[in-house]
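Rotation project, supervised by the postdoc (A.L.). Task for the rotation student: set up a whole-complex structure prediction and record inputs and outputs verbatim in this book. Inputs entered:
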Amino acid sequence: MPPIITAFASSPDRGRGLARDMRVRWALEEVGQPYEVRLLSFREMKEAPHLARHPFGQIPTYEDGDLVLFESGAIVLHIAERHAGLLPAGQTARARAIAWMFAALGTVEPPILDLSTARLLERDKPWAEARLPILMDRIRVRLGELSKALGGRDWLVDGFSAADLLMVHALRRLEGSGLLDEYPNLSAYVARGQARPAYKRAFDAQLAVFTDGAGAD
Amino acid sequence: MPPIITAFASSPDRGRGLARDMRVRWALEEVGQPYEVRLLSFREMKEAPHLARHPFGQIPTYEDGDLVLFESGAIVLHIAERHAGLLPAGQTARARAIAWMFAALGTVEPPILDLSTARLLERDKPWAEARLPILMDRIRVRLGELSKALGGRDWLVDGFSAADLLMVHALRRLEGSGLLDEYPNLSAYVARGQARPAYKRAFDAQLAVFTDGAGAD
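Outputs recorded:
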Protein backbone atom coordinates (compact mmCIF):
# COMPACT_ATOMS: atom_id res chain seq x y z
CA MET A 1 0.00 0.00 0.00
CA PRO A 2 1.44 3.40 -0.92
CA PRO A 3 1.14 6.21 1.64
CA ILE A 4 -2.01 8.31 1.51
CA ILE A 5 -1.92 12.08 1.78
CA THR A 6 -4.81 14.50 2.13
CA ALA A 7 -5.38 17.64 0.06
CA PHE A 8 -8.11 20.20 -0.59
CA ALA A 9 -10.88 18.92 -2.84
CA SER A 10 -11.27 22.54 -3.84
CA SER A 11 -8.10 24.49 -3.15
CA PRO A 12 -8.61 28.17 -2.29
CA ASP A 13 -5.69 29.02 -4.60
CA ARG A 14 -7.44 27.48 -7.62
CA GLY A 15 -4.56 25.17 -8.47
CA ARG A 16 -1.64 27.57 -8.06
CA GLY A 17 0.11 24.99 -5.89
CA LEU A 18 0.34 27.18 -2.79
CA ALA A 19 -1.46 24.74 -0.49
CA ARG A 20 0.83 22.67 1.69
CA ASP A 21 0.00 19.32 0.11
CA MET A 22 2.28 20.60 -2.66
CA ARG A 23 5.26 20.22 -0.28
CA VAL A 24 4.48 16.60 0.45
CA ARG A 25 3.76 15.78 -3.19
CA TRP A 26 7.05 17.41 -4.19
CA ALA A 27 9.02 15.48 -1.55
CA LEU A 28 7.43 12.18 -2.61
CA GLU A 29 8.19 12.92 -6.26
CA GLU A 30 11.82 13.78 -5.43
CA VAL A 31 12.35 10.39 -3.81
CA GLY A 32 10.23 8.46 -6.31
CA GLN A 33 7.64 7.25 -3.81
CA PRO A 34 4.17 6.71 -5.31
CA TYR A 35 1.27 7.93 -3.19
CA GLU A 36 -2.48 8.18 -3.09
CA VAL A 37 -4.53 11.27 -2.35
CA ARG A 38 -7.67 11.63 -0.28
CA LEU A 39 -9.44 14.87 -1.20
CA LEU A 40 -11.37 16.66 1.51
CA SER A 41 -14.00 19.38 1.47
CA PHE A 42 -13.67 22.23 3.94
CA ARG A 43 -16.51 20.65 5.92
CA GLU A 44 -14.82 17.24 6.04
CA MET A 45 -11.57 18.81 7.27
CA LYS A 46 -13.29 19.84 10.50
CA GLU A 47 -15.15 16.56 11.07
CA ALA A 48 -14.14 13.76 13.41
CA PRO A 49 -12.48 11.35 10.94
CA HIS A 50 -10.06 14.02 9.75
CA LEU A 51 -9.57 15.59 13.19
CA ALA A 52 -8.34 12.16 14.27
CA ARG A 53 -5.63 12.54 11.62
CA HIS A 54 -4.96 16.23 12.12
CA PRO A 55 -5.75 17.89 15.48
CA PHE A 56 -5.99 21.32 13.80
CA GLY A 57 -8.26 20.15 10.96
CA GLN A 58 -5.89 21.08 8.16
CA ILE A 59 -4.22 19.48 5.18
CA PRO A 60 -1.91 17.76 4.43
CA THR A 61 -1.71 14.60 6.45
CA TYR A 62 0.31 11.47 5.70
CA GLU A 63 -0.79 7.93 6.45
CA ASP A 64 1.53 4.96 6.06
CA GLY A 65 0.23 1.83 7.76
CA ASP A 66 -0.17 2.59 11.45
CA LEU A 67 1.59 5.93 11.20
CA VAL A 68 -0.50 9.06 10.82
CA LEU A 69 1.38 12.36 10.56
CA PHE A 70 0.40 16.00 10.25
CA GLU A 71 2.38 19.25 9.68
CA SER A 72 3.98 19.51 6.26
CA GLY A 73 7.43 20.13 7.75
CA ALA A 74 7.26 16.97 9.83
CA ILE A 75 5.98 14.92 6.90
CA VAL A 76 8.73 16.16 4.60
CA LEU A 77 11.33 15.42 7.28
CA HIS A 78 9.89 11.94 7.78
CA ILE A 79 10.12 11.24 4.04
CA ALA A 80 13.63 12.70 3.94
CA GLU A 81 14.77 10.46 6.79
CA ARG A 82 13.50 7.32 5.06
CA HIS A 83 14.61 7.93 1.48
CA ALA A 84 17.82 9.18 -0.09
CA GLY A 85 17.81 12.49 -1.91
CA LEU A 86 16.37 15.09 0.44
CA LEU A 87 19.05 15.45 3.12
CA PRO A 88 22.85 15.67 2.82
CA ALA A 89 24.77 12.52 3.73
CA GLY A 90 27.17 14.05 6.27
CA GLN A 91 25.91 14.51 9.82
CA THR A 92 26.91 18.17 10.06
CA ALA A 93 25.35 19.11 6.72
CA ARG A 94 22.27 17.07 7.58
CA ALA A 95 21.75 18.96 10.84
CA ARG A 96 22.30 22.26 9.01
CA ALA A 97 19.68 21.34 6.41
CA ILE A 98 17.19 20.52 9.18
CA ALA A 99 17.95 23.90 10.77
CA TRP A 100 17.09 25.54 7.46
CA MET A 101 13.85 23.55 7.32
CA PHE A 102 12.85 25.04 10.66
CA ALA A 103 14.01 28.48 9.46
CA ALA A 104 11.82 28.24 6.35
CA LEU A 105 8.74 27.45 8.44
CA GLY A 106 9.48 29.39 11.61
CA THR A 107 11.37 32.49 10.51
CA VAL A 108 10.84 33.18 6.81
CA GLU A 109 7.27 32.01 6.27
CA PRO A 110 5.44 33.68 9.21
CA PRO A 111 5.74 37.29 7.99
CA ILE A 112 4.76 36.09 4.51
CA LEU A 113 1.67 34.40 5.93
CA ASP A 114 0.88 37.56 7.92
CA LEU A 115 0.63 39.42 4.62
CA SER A 116 -1.71 36.77 3.19
CA THR A 117 -3.81 36.86 6.36
CA ALA A 118 -4.06 40.65 6.26
CA ARG A 119 -5.13 40.57 2.62
CA LEU A 120 -7.60 37.75 3.14
CA LEU A 121 -9.08 38.24 6.60
CA GLU A 122 -8.57 41.95 7.31
CA ARG A 123 -9.05 43.44 3.84
CA ASP A 124 -12.29 45.18 4.81
CA LYS A 125 -10.87 46.66 8.01
CA PRO A 126 -10.17 50.39 8.20
CA TRP A 127 -6.46 49.67 8.76
CA ALA A 128 -6.06 47.28 5.85
CA GLU A 129 -4.22 49.65 3.53
CA ALA A 130 -2.08 51.35 6.17
CA ARG A 131 -0.76 48.05 7.56
CA LEU A 132 0.39 46.59 4.25
CA PRO A 133 3.66 48.58 3.97
CA ILE A 134 4.53 47.59 7.54
CA LEU A 135 3.99 43.92 6.76
CA MET A 136 5.95 44.18 3.53
CA ASP A 137 8.88 45.77 5.36
CA ARG A 138 8.91 42.90 7.85
CA ILE A 139 9.15 40.49 4.94
CA ARG A 140 11.97 42.54 3.40
CA VAL A 141 14.01 42.15 6.57
CA ARG A 142 13.83 38.37 6.28
CA LEU A 143 14.35 38.31 2.51
CA GLY A 144 17.40 40.54 2.83
CA GLU A 145 18.94 38.20 5.40
CA LEU A 146 18.03 35.13 3.38
CA SER A 147 19.44 36.69 0.21
CA LYS A 148 22.75 37.33 1.96
CA ALA A 149 22.85 33.83 3.40
CA LEU A 150 22.19 32.20 0.04
CA GLY A 151 24.60 34.48 -1.81
CA GLY A 152 25.61 33.03 -5.15
CA ARG A 153 24.94 29.41 -4.24
CA ASP A 154 22.28 27.29 -5.88
CA TRP A 155 20.89 25.74 -2.68
CA LEU A 156 21.02 26.42 1.05
CA VAL A 157 23.16 23.43 2.12
CA ASP A 158 25.25 21.55 -0.42
CA GLY A 159 22.91 20.09 -3.07
CA PHE A 160 19.13 20.45 -3.22
CA SER A 161 17.53 19.37 0.05
CA ALA A 162 14.27 19.37 1.98
CA ALA A 163 15.30 22.82 3.24
CA ASP A 164 15.13 24.21 -0.29
CA LEU A 165 11.86 22.43 -0.91
CA LEU A 166 10.21 24.14 2.06
CA MET A 167 11.90 27.50 1.49
CA VAL A 168 11.05 27.69 -2.21
CA HIS A 169 7.46 26.81 -1.48
CA ALA A 170 7.17 29.41 1.28
CA LEU A 171 8.66 32.08 -1.00
CA ARG A 172 6.27 31.24 -3.83
CA ARG A 173 3.47 32.82 -1.80
CA LEU A 174 5.11 36.19 -2.59
CA GLU A 175 4.37 35.83 -6.31
CA GLY A 176 2.54 38.91 -7.50
CA SER A 177 3.68 41.04 -4.54
CA GLY A 178 6.80 42.26 -6.35
CA LEU A 179 8.84 41.61 -3.20
CA LEU A 180 10.81 38.69 -4.57
CA ASP A 181 11.90 40.76 -7.57
CA GLU A 182 13.86 42.99 -5.20
CA TYR A 183 16.22 40.06 -4.51
CA PRO A 184 17.41 38.62 -7.84
CA ASN A 185 19.22 35.69 -6.27
CA LEU A 186 16.04 34.68 -4.43
CA SER A 187 13.93 34.97 -7.61
CA ALA A 188 16.44 32.76 -9.39
CA TYR A 189 16.42 30.35 -6.45
CA VAL A 190 12.66 29.95 -6.57
CA ALA A 191 12.78 29.48 -10.36
CA ARG A 192 15.49 26.84 -9.88
CA GLY A 193 13.24 24.93 -7.52
CA GLN A 194 10.27 25.17 -9.83
CA ALA A 195 12.36 23.89 -12.73
CA ARG A 196 12.99 20.55 -11.05
CA PRO A 197 11.18 17.66 -12.75
CA ALA A 198 9.82 16.46 -9.39
CA TYR A 199 8.38 19.91 -8.71
CA LYS A 200 6.67 19.90 -12.08
CA ARG A 201 5.15 16.47 -11.55
CA ALA A 202 3.86 17.51 -8.13
CA PHE A 203 2.52 20.77 -9.47
CA ASP A 204 0.69 19.05 -12.34
CA ALA A 205 -0.82 16.52 -9.93
CA GLN A 206 -2.27 19.17 -7.64
CA LEU A 207 -3.43 21.25 -10.61
CA ALA A 208 -5.28 18.27 -12.01
CA VAL A 209 -7.47 18.20 -8.89
CA PHE A 210 -8.65 21.67 -9.79
CA THR A 211 -8.91 21.37 -13.57
CA ASP A 212 -10.66 18.01 -13.31
CA GLY A 213 -13.16 19.61 -10.96
CA ALA A 214 -12.96 16.41 -8.98
CA GLY A 215 -14.17 17.82 -5.73
CA ALA A 216 -16.18 21.01 -5.88
CA ASP A 217 -16.97 21.74 -2.27
CA MET B 1 34.42 20.84 25.30
CA PRO B 2 30.72 21.25 26.13
CA PRO B 3 28.47 22.78 23.49
CA ILE B 4 28.14 26.57 23.51
CA ILE B 5 24.80 28.29 23.13
CA THR B 6 24.07 31.99 22.66
CA ALA B 7 21.57 34.06 24.62
CA PHE B 8 20.63 37.69 25.14
CA ALA B 9 23.05 39.56 27.40
CA SER B 10 20.05 41.69 28.28
CA SER B 11 16.83 39.82 27.58
CA PRO B 12 13.87 42.03 26.61
CA ASP B 13 11.68 39.94 28.93
CA ARG B 14 13.82 40.83 31.97
CA GLY B 15 14.43 37.21 32.93
CA ARG B 16 10.93 35.80 32.49
CA GLY B 17 12.38 32.96 30.43
CA LEU B 18 10.41 33.71 27.28
CA ALA B 19 13.46 34.06 25.02
CA ARG B 20 14.21 31.00 22.95
CA ASP B 21 17.52 30.15 24.62
CA MET B 22 15.23 28.84 27.39
CA ARG B 23 14.16 25.99 25.08
CA VAL B 24 17.72 24.90 24.43
CA ARG B 25 18.73 25.26 28.08
CA TRP B 26 15.70 23.18 29.09
CA ALA B 27 16.49 20.45 26.56
CA LEU B 28 20.12 20.29 27.67
CA GLU B 29 19.04 20.09 31.31
CA GLU B 30 16.56 17.29 30.53
CA VAL B 31 19.30 15.15 29.02
CA GLY B 32 21.96 16.16 31.53
CA GLN B 33 24.34 17.76 29.04
CA PRO B 34 26.46 20.59 30.49
CA TYR B 35 26.81 23.65 28.27
CA GLU B 36 28.40 27.05 28.10
CA VAL B 37 26.69 30.30 27.22
CA ARG B 38 27.94 33.18 25.10
CA LEU B 39 25.94 36.31 25.89
CA LEU B 40 25.35 38.78 23.09
CA SER B 41 24.25 42.39 23.02
CA PHE B 42 21.63 43.40 20.46
CA ARG B 43 24.41 45.05 18.48
CA GLU B 44 26.58 41.94 18.48
CA MET B 45 23.67 39.82 17.26
CA LYS B 46 23.64 41.73 13.98
CA GLU B 47 27.42 41.75 13.47
CA ALA B 48 29.44 39.45 11.24
CA PRO B 49 30.69 36.91 13.81
CA HIS B 50 27.16 36.11 14.96
CA LEU B 51 25.62 36.34 11.49
CA ALA B 52 28.04 33.58 10.53
CA ARG B 53 26.37 31.47 13.22
CA HIS B 54 22.82 32.66 12.63
CA PRO B 55 21.81 34.04 9.22
CA PHE B 56 18.90 35.96 10.78
CA GLY B 57 20.97 37.47 13.60
CA GLN B 58 18.96 35.93 16.42
CA ILE B 59 19.50 33.77 19.47
CA PRO B 60 19.86 30.94 20.31
CA THR B 61 22.58 29.18 18.40
CA TYR B 62 24.33 25.94 19.28
CA GLU B 63 27.97 25.16 18.61
CA ASP B 64 29.45 21.72 19.13
CA GLY B 65 32.85 21.28 17.51
CA ASP B 66 32.43 21.90 13.79
CA LEU B 67 28.67 21.99 13.97
CA VAL B 68 26.91 25.33 14.21
CA LEU B 69 23.12 25.27 14.40
CA PHE B 70 20.39 27.90 14.59
CA GLU B 71 16.59 27.76 15.10
CA SER B 72 15.54 26.57 18.54
CA GLY B 73 13.35 23.80 17.09
CA ALA B 74 16.24 22.36 15.10
CA ILE B 75 18.60 22.59 18.07
CA VAL B 76 16.14 20.85 20.38
CA LEU B 77 15.58 18.13 17.76
CA HIS B 78 19.34 17.71 17.36
CA ILE B 79 19.77 17.29 21.11
CA ALA B 80 16.79 14.91 21.23
CA GLU B 81 18.27 12.74 18.47
CA ARG B 82 21.59 12.41 20.27
CA HIS B 83 20.45 11.82 23.84
CA ALA B 84 17.78 9.66 25.44
CA GLY B 85 14.85 11.31 27.15
CA LEU B 86 13.32 13.77 24.70
CA LEU B 87 11.75 11.51 22.06
CA PRO B 88 9.72 8.30 22.43
CA ALA B 89 11.57 5.09 21.64
CA GLY B 90 9.11 3.64 19.10
CA GLN B 91 9.39 4.86 15.52
CA THR B 92 5.70 5.74 15.19
CA ALA B 93 5.56 7.66 18.47
CA ARG B 94 8.86 9.33 17.62
CA ALA B 95 7.50 10.61 14.29
CA ARG B 96 4.33 11.79 16.03
CA ALA B 97 6.35 13.71 18.61
CA ILE B 98 8.32 15.41 15.83
CA ALA B 99 5.02 16.33 14.15
CA TRP B 100 3.94 17.97 17.40
CA MET B 101 7.26 19.85 17.54
CA PHE B 102 6.48 21.33 14.14
CA ALA B 103 2.89 22.02 15.26
CA ALA B 104 4.11 23.92 18.32
CA LEU B 105 6.32 26.17 16.22
CA GLY B 106 4.32 26.37 12.99
CA THR B 107 0.68 26.23 14.04
CA VAL B 108 0.26 27.15 17.70
CA GLU B 109 3.01 29.72 18.21
CA PRO B 110 2.48 32.04 15.19
CA PRO B 111 -0.86 33.55 16.31
CA ILE B 112 0.61 33.94 19.81
CA LEU B 113 3.60 35.78 18.38
CA ASP B 114 1.26 37.94 16.29
CA LEU B 115 -0.32 39.16 19.51
CA SER B 116 3.10 39.97 20.98
CA THR B 117 4.10 41.75 17.78
CA ALA B 118 0.90 43.80 17.76
CA ARG B 119 1.44 44.81 21.37
CA LEU B 120 5.09 45.60 20.90
CA LEU B 121 5.44 47.02 17.40
CA GLU B 122 1.97 48.37 16.61
CA ARG B 123 0.83 49.59 20.02
CA ASP B 124 0.90 53.24 18.93
CA LYS B 125 -1.04 52.62 15.72
CA PRO B 126 -4.63 53.79 15.44
CA TRP B 127 -5.78 50.19 14.95
CA ALA B 128 -3.94 48.77 17.97
CA GLU B 129 -6.92 48.36 20.24
CA ALA B 130 -9.41 47.25 17.58
CA ARG B 131 -7.14 44.46 16.30
CA LEU B 132 -6.47 42.84 19.67
CA PRO B 133 -9.79 40.93 19.96
CA ILE B 134 -9.29 39.60 16.42
CA LEU B 135 -5.83 38.33 17.31
CA MET B 136 -7.06 36.83 20.55
CA ASP B 137 -9.84 34.97 18.74
CA ARG B 138 -7.29 33.50 16.33
CA ILE B 139 -5.34 32.22 19.33
CA ARG B 140 -8.53 30.79 20.85
CA VAL B 141 -9.13 28.71 17.73
CA ARG B 142 -5.74 27.05 18.13
CA LEU B 143 -6.00 26.69 21.90
CA GLY B 144 -9.42 25.07 21.57
CA GLU B 145 -8.07 22.53 19.09
CA LEU B 146 -4.98 21.90 21.20
CA SER B 147 -7.08 21.51 24.34
CA LYS B 148 -9.22 18.86 22.64
CA ALA B 149 -6.16 17.05 21.29
CA LEU B 150 -4.48 16.94 24.69
CA GLY B 151 -7.67 15.97 26.52
CA GLY B 152 -6.94 14.49 29.92
CA ARG B 153 -3.44 13.30 29.11
CA ASP B 154 -0.33 14.67 30.77
CA TRP B 155 1.75 15.04 27.60
CA LEU B 156 1.16 15.14 23.86
CA VAL B 157 2.76 11.79 22.90
CA ASP B 158 3.36 9.13 25.54
CA GLY B 159 5.72 10.56 28.18
CA PHE B 160 7.23 14.04 28.27
CA SER B 161 9.01 14.82 24.98
CA ALA B 162 10.61 17.62 23.00
CA ALA B 163 7.12 18.35 21.65
CA ASP B 164 5.91 19.28 25.14
CA LEU B 165 9.04 21.30 25.75
CA LEU B 166 8.39 23.48 22.70
CA MET B 167 4.63 23.64 23.21
CA VAL B 168 4.79 24.59 26.89
CA HIS B 169 7.33 27.29 26.11
CA ALA B 170 5.23 28.70 23.27
CA LEU B 171 2.14 28.76 25.50
CA ARG B 172 3.98 30.52 28.31
CA ARG B 173 3.98 33.69 26.18
CA LEU B 174 0.24 33.90 26.91
CA GLU B 175 0.84 34.47 30.63
CA GLY B 176 -1.00 37.59 31.68
CA SER B 177 -3.35 37.55 28.69
CA GLY B 178 -5.96 35.46 30.51
CA LEU B 179 -6.31 33.26 27.42
CA LEU B 180 -4.74 30.18 28.90
CA ASP B 181 -7.12 30.31 31.86
CA GLU B 182 -9.99 29.60 29.46
CA TYR B 183 -8.56 26.09 28.91
CA PRO B 184 -7.92 24.47 32.30
CA ASN B 185 -6.21 21.41 30.84
CA LEU B 186 -3.75 23.66 28.99
CA SER B 187 -3.05 25.74 32.11
CA ALA B 188 -2.36 22.53 34.00
CA TYR B 189 -0.19 21.29 31.13
CA VAL B 190 1.98 24.41 31.20
CA ALA B 191 2.27 24.19 35.00
CA ARG B 192 3.28 20.52 34.66
CA GLY B 193 6.09 21.50 32.31
CA GLN B 194 7.26 24.28 34.56
CA ALA B 195 7.33 21.91 37.54
CA ARG B 196 9.98 19.70 35.96
CA PRO B 197 13.35 19.95 37.71
CA ALA B 198 15.11 20.45 34.37
CA TYR B 199 12.80 23.36 33.56
CA LYS B 200 13.57 24.96 36.89
CA ARG B 201 17.32 24.60 36.44
CA ALA B 202 17.09 26.14 32.97
CA PHE B 203 14.86 28.94 34.21
CA ASP B 204 17.19 29.78 37.07
CA ALA B 205 20.18 29.82 34.72
CA GLN B 206 18.60 32.31 32.33
CA LEU B 207 17.29 34.40 35.21
CA ALA B 208 20.78 34.63 36.67
CA VAL B 209 21.94 36.42 33.53
CA PHE B 210 19.45 39.15 34.30
CA THR B 211 19.79 39.34 38.06
CA ASP B 212 23.57 39.26 37.88
CA GLY B 213 23.40 42.17 35.45
CA ALA B 214 26.11 40.39 33.54
CA GLY B 215 25.50 42.02 30.23
CA ALA B 216 23.71 45.33 30.24
CA ASP B 217 23.51 46.25 26.57
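Student's summary: The two ends of chain B are 28 Å apart (CA to CA).
Supervisor addendum: The first strand of chain B starts at residue 4 and ends at 8.
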